[in-house]
Write a structure and sequence with these properties.
566 residues, alpha+beta, 6-stranded antiparallel beta sheet, 17 helices, 14 strands, disordered N terminus, binds adenosine-5'-diphosphate
Length: 566
């Protein structure tokens, strides 16, 4: 595994640009101030013929000196807090020296005036804001100089050329300043985006490394593009080697029959075709040490900018311990149910004999008690039977004796058995084989061949469960059992005029131990396992089961099974 990356933030472009600009301006002003001191010292000492040279030297040299001191001692202390202001003060020392020089040597006509204009232009490298401030300063200076000139000469001289080239310089400076600002902003933005991308990638890698479960991402060609350290431990492949390698070379998934996944049951391909997340625990993996480990695999599709699936990410969660625990629990429940079923059957048998007037003589009160005891024994027996079926289904120990048989015979048999049960509750019972019955008579339309490939005992269990539920949850009216079919499937429907099921409960009906919470369910008693077993068996044989119901009006439970055509 690569070392955990260290977060390194790039210095924002604007900050580093500002910093070097300030240093440059500071060096330039220091040099200008030093040059000013030397220049006026030389002019004063060598008596060079410049108007007002002595007063200029006496005012400008101390100010320039102050500027140099400021640059060396004050600026470093305050530039962190006032980066713009501190540099501008430095520039102002040069400007003040120049303004004094210009004013004392002839105003706008002074030889120093162009230098002042150049300084204003130079300030534009600090950006548009600095340029506006110095341009406004220049405009103010020009106005003051014009007024002073009128006062001194009593004449109005407009200094057209000076004002004109000042204007050109200011416009040019402003354009340059805007271009500089734009460049700085753009590069600042680019660096910010790069930094954000860097840190997003970094946090993704850190997050991935922190996940204890193996995480593997693939593209649509099933080549690995993402591999975390837990995946390295599981497969013994390094991230570097695994990248761009076919998933099937790195990790082999086996189904419950120890067959390697094929195109038809590969969870990744399933996700590519459905576009929906999938969680399955039907696969196991052979680890690097050849151990068989059960995994729950969650595969989620990933999408590109056009919202097209471009790959998938899978999280593998080791559930071998859970499975072992579940196996132990199932074994216990299965053994207990099996052992208890026999004595309960004996109790039920003896109670049945005790209530049979041909075999025993009991008074009516005792008979009533014995009937109740027998019903409870029957209920207990059903519970053990259901628990046994559930544990067998979950452990894949179901004794599944598949054969091709005709559903017509089976449905007719079940119908005649269940009719007795319905009659006991004074319910009408109708069966319709080969046509959708109208619900008023039992009918058999030209004995059709509805052949399926399944275990007939299991299919009988499904139908018996549905019909006995309908009888259980119907107070009055009728129960209809219908067998129909099309070219692909047979369809069995059990319709009743019972209590019905509220819409919000319907989606939970086929879950393990789920019972609708109403007074009748409580009164009738049950395990909440019948429909779960029915669904599991129907799905095992490649069919589908569902319910349509309206509270107070009744329910129709329907299941399909694939038709054997030849
Ligand atoms: P149970 O042993 O409780 O009948 P099932 O799994 O067979 O367990 O049924 C689950 C629940 O579904 C029942 O408790 C009942 O509330 C409801 N149910 C099943 N069949 C019907 C039906 N035909 N009409 C109304 N409710 C039904």
């Amino acid at each position: 595994m690569e070392n955990s990356p260290v977060i390194t933030a790039n210095k924002p472009a604007k900050q580093s640009y500002d910093r070097s600009l300030q240093t440059f301006v500071l060096s330039a002003t220091t040099l200008s101030l030093a040059a000013t001191i030397v220049f006026f010292a030389v002019v004063a000492v060598l008596n060079i013929d410049i108007p007002n040279r002595i007063p200029i030297a006496f005012t400008v040299i101390p100010i320039a000196l102050l500027g140099v001191i400021y640059n060396f001692f004050v600026w470093p202390k305050i530039e962190g807090r006032y980066p713009f202001g501190s540099t501008y003060i430095s520039l102002s020392f040069v400007a003040i020296c120049l303004i004094i020089g210009v004013l004392l040597s002839g105003g706008l006509a002074s030889v120093y005036f162009p230098v002042l204009v150049i300084l204003v232009m130079a300030s534009c490298i600090l950006g548009a804001r600095a340029c506006l401030i110095s341009s406004s300063g220049l405009a103010l200076f020009i106005v003051v100089a014009l007024v002073l000139n009128v006062v001194n000469t009593n004449k109005l001289n407009l200094f057209i050329p000076e004002i004109f080239y000042s204007l050109i310089a200011v416009i040019f400076g402003l354009l340059v300043a805007r271009a500089i600002d734009h460049y700085v902003e753009t590069s600042h933005l680019a660096t910010t985006i790069t930094n954000q991308l860097d840190s997003t990638q970094l946090s993704e890698r850190l997050m991935l490394a922190a996940i204890a479960d193996p995480v593997i991402g693939v593209n649509k060609k099933l080549e690995i593009i993402l591999f975390n350290s837990a995946a390295e431990d599981l497969t013994n492949w390094s991230t570097k080697d695994a990248q761009n390698t076919l998933l099937s070379n790195v990790i082999k998934l086996f189904d419950s029959n120890d067959n390697q996944t094929t195109k038809s049951n590969n969870p990744f391909l399933k996700v590519f075709s459905t576009g929906e997340q999938l969680t399955t625990d039907e696969f196991h993996i052979l680890t690097s040490s050849n151990a068989k480990v059960s995994f729950s695999i969650s595969v989620a599709p990933t999408f590109d900018m056009q919202n097209e699936i471009n790959g998938a990410i899978a999280v593998f969660h080791d559930i071998s311990e859970q499975k072992a625990l579940q196996r132990q629990r199932n074994e216990f429940v299965s053994t207990a149910s099996h052992e208890m079923r026999t004595p309960v059957a004996a109790i039920e048998g003896y109670l049945s004999m005790a209530t049979n007037p041909n075999l025993a003589t009991v008074d009516d009160r005792a008979k009533n008690f014995l009937e109740k005891a027998r019903n409870s024994a029957l209920h207990l027996g059903k519970l053990f039977q259901d628990l046994l079926s559930v544990t067998k289904i979950e452990d894949q120990r179901l004794n599944d004796q598949r054969q091709v048989f005709n559903m017509t015979d089976l449905v007719s048999q079940v119908a005649s058995e269940m009719e007795i049960m319905a009659k006991k509750k004074s319910l009408s019972f109708y069966s319709h084989i080969g046509s959708e019955g109208a619900g008023n008579k039992t009918e058999l339309v030209v004995a059709p061949q509805f052949k399926v490939n399944a275990d007939p005992d299991r299919v009988r269990e499904i139908i018996t469960n549905l019909v006995s539920n309908s009888i259980k949850y119907t107070q009055s009216g009728s129960v209809d059992l219908t067998l129909t079919g099309d070219r692909n499937n047979i369809k069995v429907a059990v319709r009743d005029t019972g209590i019905g099921i509220p819409a919000e409960e319907q989606k939970h009906m086929f879950e393990k131990f789920y019972r609708v919470n109403n007074s009748m369910t409580r009164e009738v008693g049950g395990t909440g396992l019948g429909l779960y077993i029915a669904r599991t068996l129907v799905e095992l044989y490649g069919g589908r089961i569902w319910v349509d119901s309206e509270p107070g009006k009744g329910s129709t439970f329907t299941f399909t099974l694939p038709l054997v055509k030849s």
